[in-house]
Amino acid sequence: MGGIHTQGRVLSGMRPTGHLHLGHYHGVLKNWVSLQQEYDCFFFVADWHALTTHYEDSGIIAESLWDMVIDWLAAGVNPSSARLFIQSQVPEHAELHLLLSMVTPIGWLERVPSYKDQQEKLRERDLATYGFLGYPLLQGADILIYGADKVPVGEDQVAHVELTREIARRFNHIYGRETGYEEAAEAAIKKMGKKNARLYRQLLKRYQEQGDHEAIEVARALLAEQQNLAISDQERLLGFLEGGGRMILTEPEALLTPASKMPGLDGQKMSKSYHNTISLRERPDDVQEKLRTMPTDPARVRRTDPGNPDICPVWQLHQVYSGEDVQAWVREGCTTAGIGCLDCKQPVIDSVLGELQPIQERAREFEQDPGRVRAIINEGGEAARAVARATLEEVRAAMGLNY
Ligand code: TRP
Ligand code: SF4
To answer: CATH homologous superfamily for 9-174+249-261+369-399?
Structure first.
């Protein structure tokens, strides 16, 4: 797929391995909701990725999958702005994964930090498998097949996007050199007309001689404007800019998801493995109960003991949910023993319930209409497949497989 979209393209995936909770909402989902307004977005259920770690209890995938899609929709991910689909329903991902595997040095995969880290962390699972080693390459295929230029991910996934860039570069280097490439590029430059051709050459020179990255950006924009250049010519000239061959696969950029400030009930990061979550479908009574019983400053044993918000997980929640006035009330009341911990928690309880209420209401609507959810996923899948097929056609042709 070419690197030219009038609007940047965003792709991201999520593994269906359990309930989504407020950590996901404040981290990933709100971010998706804002990205969908600005970019051409593709969001998918990474069921094959879940299988790489959960192949022995694969039932969890089907169990979580529809709830997860419903949670996306309930959180405001909008199927008329973003394409939503399921990875395994676009089998082209697997074909691209296979083709890319031919040019991927094993050492590159072994060196990805998550490979060893996850094996250490998930000791109860045997992750010494071919599939798990290939995890980041499968992710690379997910990204490259849509020509995505931006990939919203957490810190732990940045290395996977980095690997994807290296694979794209290697692929373009190996398969992007047509015979007569320089001549074809020269001919394409001429097609832009005198003025633009001169501008393009100047920009190219500025980049090649002075390493001026801004020149590349300007040249990219210039190419994107050329209505009379065929896509193949645009790609050729893009590749020319980067000093390699024709650009068949687009190098993506990681778009670091702002770290969720949402702490768990114990003050650590909210995470299923710490058992400190509030799920998006948590019943209001249970939300209340969980927050009422969550730990506070351990030194504040009696109501009359003053406390220290800085070591209290409830204070972290106030930083997410409360305005300055309430925060001032907490600090004052806590440090002077003017308020009790239950008093202190009440505004947080109200805020969390208020936040979940519309989400849960929308989730119920979608739950009652599974046909609608399936239709959204089918439509998203069709749109995704059309893009994926076009990329594969180019990839097959570049590799000489278009008999
Ligand atoms: N590996 C990602 C995670 O665990 C999920 C994922 C799969 C993904 N393919 C992707 C994310 C492509 C971004 C782009 O969170
Ligand atoms: Fe924590 Fe609030 Fe109790 Fe202070 S009053 S210890 S901030 S819960």
So the answer is: HUPs (3.40.50.620)
| Ligand that comes closest to the CA of residue 142 | 1
**At the top level of CATH, which class does the domain 281-367 belong to?**
mainly alpha
The answer, yes or no, to whether residue 241 has pLDDT greater than 80, is no
Q: Is residue 296 in contact with ligand 2, taking CB distance under 6 Å?
A: yes
348 touches ligand 2 (CB under 6 Å): no
* Per-residue pLDDT reduced to its tens digit, 270-301: 999 899 999 999 999 999 999 999 999 999 99
For the CA of 313, the nearest atom of ligand 2: 1
Alpha-carbon gap, residue 68 to 20, rounded angstroms = 7
Cα 350 to middle of ligand 2, angstroms: 16
Atom number, ligand 1, closest to the C-alpha of residue 46: 7
Q: What is the pLDDT of residues 340-397, one digit of tens each?
A: 999 999 999 999 999 999 999 999 999 999 999 999 999 999 999 999 999 999 999 9
CA distance 183 to 367: 58
